[in-house]
Amino acid sequence: QPFNPGIFLIHAVSNIICSVVFGDRFDYEDKKFLTLIELLEENNRLQNSIQPQLYNFFPNVMEYLPGPHQKLIQNIEKVDQFTFDIIAEHQKTLDPTCPRDFVDAFLNKMEQEKGNGHSEFTVETLSRTTLDLFLAGTGTTSITLRHGLLILLKYPEIV
User: Which of 15, 17, 105, 132 sits between 20 and 30 A of 40, alpha carbons compared?
Assistant: First the structure.
């Protein structure tokens, strides 16, 4: 039976990123995980319209106009909340002598830089970096894997 492996690849890649960043993977049926994937996928679709691109040039004007860029902003806020919740949980259970993942390592560095007023190691930076890892890693890696599968289907003799 033909099927589209795209969603399976996105789930697998996202879970690997979760494992590295958060030290844990999600069940493929986990509602939080599925919501995160939906938000990221919807943002990828919304970014193709003209309004989000105009928002980059005219944020003060576009902030008051309706359009898909408003939904994009709401989705980013939800993803931020998702990461902030996980960061808060990590802060409660942090063992500085045994970092479990990227978040713990970043939190340790934040603690080391606490006296430095010019430090870039903040919770906001951690949240943004985590979002960047998801956006860059999930989309590009899953698309690369999808294209690799298509090439293997077209040229089965190379396997």
Answer: 105
